[in-house]
Amino acid sequence: MTTTTQTTTAASIAYSDDGRSLTFTAGDLPIATYTYQPEDEQYESPRPYFHPLTTLGGDEVTIYRPWDHVWHKGLSWALPNVGDHNFWGGATYTRATGYANLDNNGAMGHEAFTSIEESTDGITVTESLVWTAQPSSGQAISDGQAGQPLIKEQRSFAIGMLPVPGAWVLLFKSTMDNISGTEIGIGSPTTEGRDNAGYGGLFWRGPRSFTGGEFRSESGAGADEFMGTRSPWIAFTGQHDSTCRKSTIMFVEDQGNPGACNQWFARSSMFACLGSAPFFSEVVPLKVGEPLTYRYAVVISDGAVDADAAALLAAAAGKALEAWA
Q1: How far apart are CA 278 and CA 262, in angstroms?
Q2: For the domain that residue 140 is a member of, what is the CATH number?
Q3: CA atoms of 164 and 300, how far apart (whole Å)
Q4: Does residue 1 form part of some domain?
Q5: Quick check: is 170 in a domain?
Q6: CB atoms within 10 A of CB 112
Q7: Considering all CA atoms of the chain, what is the largest pairwise distance in Å, rounded to the nearest integer?
Q8: Cα four-point dihedral sign 299, 300, 302, 304
Q9: DSSP string covering 17-65, please?
Q10: Per-residue pLDDT for 287 more than 90?
Q11: Kind and range of the H or E element at 152?
């Protein structure tokens, strides 16, 4: 089968589709690639992901399949404890087993892009996905096997510029609808008893050189003490090898999200990562007929930020999120 690459433009943002991934450019610079047909092993919980993400200055701010956690994929919507299933990848943590390989790694399968809309503000993509349990045969989805359908997801994201020099924004929305027939509790290793391991949500893993970088929120700046904190927004600044430049990534949570302000999963040491964590310390029920919706803005910016610059970015991203239907 041959794949035809399609390319179109909207304002200063353009995109191309090669049948496996969408790539977005600002001018001649690729700034984001969204892989919607991953070729990952079942153990890594195959799911769509953004990688690479790049600043307008050309510095890459994501990492893909790091050797320590090969299931980390740039920026992705990933959940480790979804009932008895794992949509994060790797081993599952439970009270009964600790970390163990439980043959429960599901997949978030792309069904179709229901729309790709162009406007003066950028490009908005709407996608339908079905989350399935690990096939009983243990074979990968790519081998033609599919497990039990559990969740129907409607996902949207938008790529656009911000009215702040050197910054662009990725707006993200996920609506999860339980189609399993029974209630599903969404939690984390922390809800299973492991302290400060509440990961699960929209998760970013940074380059190796970002290790030891700085977090900043409305409460100030620091490092690993931001783990589990609550704030409307949080930023992380790291430094790049080779160019020695700094870049900042910021998450802004829609305050209409269930439980907002939710906790952040934030690490500077060991490796740099940041994620929304609405299931950090409490199991959230996903009931049949009662979908859950979460929305975020993710800012990618050249340079470091002080308190004033961070507040300016957060305000601009918040306005973009509010205006986004």
Answers
A1: 5
A2: 2.70.98
A3: 11
A4: no
A5: yes
A6: 10
A7: 54
A8: positive
A9: E-SSEEEEEETTEEEEEEESS----GGG----EEEEEB-TTS-B---BS
A10: yes
A11: strand 149-161
* Total domains present in the chain: 1
Q: How far is CA 302 from CA 60, 72, 281, in A?
A: 10, 23, 33
The answer to whether the CB of 249 falls within 8 A of the CB of 266 is no
Dihedral in degrees, nearest 10, Cα atoms 143, 141, 52, 61: -130
The residue range of the domain holding 243 is 10-323
Torsion angle defined by CA atoms of residues 95, 85, 153 and 74, in that order, rounded to the nearest 10 degrees: 80
How many angstroms separate the CA atoms of 66 and 124, rounded?
29
Model pTM score? 0.94
Angle at CA of residue 125, ends 151 and 260, nearest 5°: 60
> Omega before 261 cis (within 30°)?
yes
User: CA-to-CA distance for 51 and 66, rounded, in angstroms?
Assistant: 13
Percentage of residues of the chain with pLDDT beyond 70: 94
- State the sign of the Cα–Cα–Cα–Cα dihedral 113, 56, 65, 269: negative
> How many residues are listed for the chain in this entry?
325
Res 138: pLDDT: 45
Distance CA 322, CA 297 (A): 10
Find out whether 112 and 125 touch, Cβ atoms under 8 Å. Answer: no
